[in-house]
């Protein structure tokens, strides 16, 4: 029988007690892993172990996939009308809302993000996504195709079956909802692996699934390492699709495993090195504020972070002064303090990775204009960092750092900055700041990215698609477009008068 974890929070931001099971959630119940084993969950604000969760492996993924397949055949999929699927999803959203403070506390504890961000952004967003796709569940439709009077031709959008999902640690509950909701709406069953770094909120989510009325086996959540549980999802023959959000390197491995097994389809939302282009006619005050949000939101641990900030030379000095002033004013500290904007980086590994990039930038000749050091002696806190004198070939300009590190780069002309902005292997997002609407639209169209923001940054909308070009991903999250990831289109031809 799996053990439980109880945490009493007595903080300025949240006071309460949360209890969650620590086992694997398979076929409607919490179970111990077949091979035993645990994974430590660490509080990044202190570097100390909070608890240990059950570690699933290939054997557990196999059990979960079989449970999901049985549920798809007997109690979900086309056996349950879209109206009913939508009602269950709406009920689940209501339960998530009732427990939102607990979700936020667990994410702040394991991830290190500010509680107010976890509550007001991540978990509010997760609930909104679940509600949005609940509304789509009874609107999955095909088309009638005009052929001739002796033939009826139409298409059906059918669920794929069992889908595997692997989510990241930077926005735990939002990522979970982002994957689970469209898959449920279209009638699929799920085997999901949360990040082993931030698994606690997913375990709380598991306790709500049965309450919402979902049959056993429809949603299975198996914690484990990527190299074992994640690999097993990518390879399992009963899993016919895998959706992943994370690094480009891991995305390549998942795509390879999917191809080598049953050639399952893949959706990949991967890394980014997003440009933020600020022209000299921009509203400087607003451009600075949005640039701060673009790179330092969520501690810089954001796939669409505007980490390459291109500023036209006429306003470069003014921008840098104001940007530096606001970056210096960012409150770095306890995630449960009401005025904290930036907590610790998520783990020691991530902390060391970011500090390694800062050292690399210095060694390559870039100037640390602000920050670049650890904050305090405990936990994984890093100062908001600004590099200047950056060159296109530097690692800090070319590679995704995934931390609070900005490169501020001077440019002269529109053509020059478009070329520099597009000089990347990624293509997730981009921002443009200018009062000239013609230039705004022209440059937004010229930037090679799946999302372009004009006079704002990091403003995803549930009803707008989100995806990357190049090595930033395959297929889309969010909006109606995401539903296409979870259906097979069947063409049906009905003979109503053709004779041989």
Radius of gyration: 24 Å
* Main sheet summary: 7 strands, mixed
| Sheet with most strands: strand arrangement | 16-17-18-15-14-19-20
Mean pLDDT comes to 95
N/C terminus separation: 65 Å
Structural class: alpha/beta
Number of helices: 14
Query: Which descriptor suits the 3D outline?
Result: globular
Instruction: Tell me roughly what share of residues is in helical segments.
Output: 25-40%
Q: Bin the strand percentage.
A: 15-25%
Q: Which consecutive residue ranges, at least 5 long each, have pLDDT under 50?
A: none
Number of strands: 22
Question: In summary, what is this structure?
Answer:
The chain is an alpha/beta fold.
How is this fold's topology laid out?
Layout: E1 4-10, E2 15-21, E3 24-26, E4 29-31, E5 38-43, E6 48-54, H1 58-74, H2 82-98, H3 100-111, H4 115-136, E7 144-148, E8 151-159, E9 162-166, H5 172-185, E10 189-193, H6 200-212, E11 219-221, H7 226-235, E12 241-245, H8 248-260, E13 265-269, E14 275-278, H9 284-296, E15 308-312, H10 316-328, H11 348-363, E16 367-370, E17 385-388, H12 395-398, E18 405-411, H13 414-421, E19 429-433, H14 437-446, E20 451-454, E21 473-474, E22 487-495
Parallel strand pairs: 9-10, 9-12, 10-11, 12-13, 14-15, 14-19, 15-18, 17-18, 19-20
Antiparallel strand pairs: 1-2, 3-4, 5-6, 7-8, 8-22, 13-21, 16-17
Helix pairs in contact: 1-7, 2-4, 2-6, 3-4, 3-6, 4-5, 7-8, 9-10
